[in-house]
């Protein structure tokens, strides 16, 4: 949890913040528990945490994805990364992901959905990049399984009916100039949009990563922070820009029968 | 001392390590082979010896003497493994065998001599058996005590190196590969041999300085004086040198046999057929171990195909093997990256599964309240592995190296991480600072880095850039968002470079023309605020990684 703010916030904001913290600590819905998340996300995520059984789209930044994985992983949870051959292991370990509890499936190919479904059963956090487009029916079947198992699914790409979307709005590297210096730290604006608690369009400035490879919110106030971001904000939850590649163009829209079989099976078991 | 009790037969296979490697890798027997340990030649084949390669020679010197020398690392475990079938076969005809070392067996002579009629007949029977196993170059020595017998066995070859003939043909009448030293004559037989055979190098030097060069001279020294001067070890050596060896053959207890072997007639050419046919074998394999309260945590699968191909590989299991796991390993070994219904290049005639590591079931008992959560993880991952293949599910660790791809070590789930060939904590001059890129491309992406006039930026031999980079584009192969966005931006399809730093040279293994690498690294921040790690090599610019 964040340290209490010293600056007197307006009344409504204060109430909202306190409510968010209460939500973070207790289950509001049935069987929905908070997943320990990196403290830097206190302002981005409602209650500062991810929820079990939800699908969160993470767009355009591997570092953001790693930052979301780092909290649960440091808390002792296993994590799986599916379909991302370029996942930088060294960066992950420097950012606080425990490599001994990290499993990679770099090339699941067309079976990525079946593989994710199998991993969702045993891993509390699964990150996946869909190789093909997901039909809403498949997505909802997998989501039922997520809720049953209490797993959080982070999706780097499109997902019908996701609970939240996180993305980078701006990214600025420090320490490098035209011909000298080197990359040292980066300030980004992360925005979050989605359903339910995410509906409030949180945006916040984070160091991703900071000078000593940590994640931290950028203290608001001095510096060129606020004025730059002000105008772009409200209407579009996530602008179409993104910094990193999304999924490659979807090739096959025909759903995989095997995936349906597996997911369907789980649902029967659940029922 | 009762001479009869001391009579010993020693069966000696010359150059056993070389033979084992030849057997495993299927190398031509006449080729010159050397096995290296610690940079020195540990063992070499007859072919290599003819060209002047000797044990203890430096590798470079050996290669100088024999340019076509085939060099392998010495693997002690392989020696033992290949020798095991030989020991088992010998145990069938002569009980009570001691494995002195892989390649050398000792057994008491009394029993076999009485059974086969004479020591000579027993030796012939042994030779016939080894000939069946394909070992033609075997020496057998019979003498008082294991030491003398071994020297006798070695003498069969040392004396007549050129006339050693296949044992099968010469077994009938006093073949040259048998040397029998009459009872009581052992001391005389070993007398001309060098004293270094019984004493350690330091003592040998000392004895040589004292004028004692042969075992006979050593044996002539008064026993009491030797004991006083050289202690128990010296007395032991003295006993050996004078043919009064106290050591007796200590027969090994044959270990229980767990391995399963299945022959297929007619040969099977489909993996699913093979997996089905081996189901019973796998069950039996696990069941036999379970009966003596053992679980298998590592095994070796050996597969022979019709064309004479041989595939052998060890598999480890993070917990223990079930019959289904054993079948999975066989499948994975055959199919590689293919699917289960892939046809095989050549039909399989023989399948053998050998346990390599076993453990007591007590260490693997489930807790009263069920297993640990990790167990569930393991089951889930095993399921994914059976979907995609063994190598598809990996765990990662950080290794050493300069290039980013070298620094991530991926190990299939269930295998043990290999001993790091490159240490992570070594300084690695030229590697990147602490901030590591989040996306490391497996295959580097071609990029274009252009200066203000649209020419490609180059780096000269002194590491200076031709002109500052202004625009940057990632190759079409990337199919990534930044490119599609920026393609429309100007004529080159290139986005402006916001900031850049470099070049930072990385020079690796310049002394080795095959692996030498000389590249320059650049960090670039593009117009979107995304940072890239670029590499310039002889062929052009590449994106090695991205900080995103």
Automatic annotation (TrEMBL), chain A:
This is Protein ImuA.
From TrEMBL, chain B:
This is DNA polymerase Y family protein. Pfam families: IMS. CDD domains: PolY_like (cd03468). Coiled coil: none annotated. InterPro entries: DNA/RNA_pol_sf, SulA_CellDiv_inhibitor, UmuC. Residues 31-152 form the UmuC domain. It comes from the Bacteria. Keywords: DNA damage. PANTHER family: BLR3025 PROTEIN, BLR3025 PROTEIN-RELATED.
